[in-house]
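S.,

Sequence below, as promised.
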Amino acid sequence: MKKLFTLLLVTTVCLSASSQSNSLTGGFGLLNAKVRVQLEHGFADRMSTGANLSYYLVNWKGPRLEGFWRFYFADDNEKGGFFQTKAGFGSFTNVFDGEELTFDYYNMNGDYVTANIYDKERFITLGGGIGFGYKYTANGGFVFETTLGYSFWTPPVDSYSSEYNLYYNSLAGAAETVGYYVIGPGFPFDFQLKFGYSF
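The prediction came back faster than expected:
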C-alpha cells in the first residue's frame, strides 16, 4: 500500500513540472465504504489521463488502482462534460479477514478434525468500465467533479480450502460472490463525487 501512495506522489511531482493542467481530487464512498484519491493530467485541449487509487474499508478490504482516459466535449479539459473509460486491478482480503476461521468435521476415518475455511487471505480482481461525467474548475483552482457509469470487476477467486469445499460445496462461495457485487467492490454502478484542487 505504501508503494502505491509513493508512486502516486512521485507521479504528482513529475506531472506538476509540466505546463499542462493537473488536478488532484478526493472523495469517499457511502454504499461500500472507501476513500479515493484521483490524479488527472490534461495533455490536449480535449483529453486527459490519470489514475484513481481507492481503499475499501469494510468487508472486502484493500486497494484498487484504476487508470483512466477522458475525452472532454468542450475545448477545455479543466471543465465541462466528458466521456471516460478505465481499467485497473485490486487486491482485497476475503470478506471475513482477520478472523481465525475454522470449522470442525469428521473425516473419512471418523476422526474429529479442525480445518481452515480459506487457503489464501487475499485475492486479485481485474476490471474496467465506462462513464460520463462533469468537471468544474473555479478561478482559484477549486475542482468539483462527478462521474456516473458502469464497471465490471472479476469476482473473488475461490480461495476456500479443499476441506471446506468438500463438506459445504460451493454455496458459501456463491453467497460471497453475490455480496461482492451487491455491497462490495464489484458493485457495477459507478457514481463518484470528488473535490480537489487544480495546479
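The chain has a mean pLDDT of 84.

Coffee later?
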